[in-house]
Amino acid sequence: MSKQIAVVGAVIERDGLILCAQRGLGALAGMWEFPGGKIEPGESALQALEREIREELRCAVDVGDEVTTTAHEYDFGTVTLTTFRCRLVEGVPVLTEHAAIKWLAPSELPTLDWAPADIPAVQILAAA
Fold this sequence. Notes:
About 15% of the residues lie in helices and about 45% in strands. It is α+β, with helices and mostly antiparallel strands. It has one domain (about 5-125): Nucleoside Triphosphate Pyrophosphohydrolase.
């Protein structure tokens, strides 16, 4: 049985564009993702996402509707990723863990090399 990892991702929207973050060192380095991270014991998905965005991007977000939940089996475990639409309410994203960020129109999202768990959300957003 592979390790189960529950993760949340923020689809941060501003002026019709969506924030894309490129992973730094470590697993899936160089691939793109929606920023976020692991849900800690005792946290709700909402609390985890707000905390992760504060830690990773030094920003505050208002978490909205769920985009989708997907599971992907990696060599290090099975990641269940739930993505939520978010609105930036405070701060400007600062790179602390990511190599780069880009703001793209939904139709441009498929041009990046996304981490496999993020691809279903990318497809939903690009098709909307």
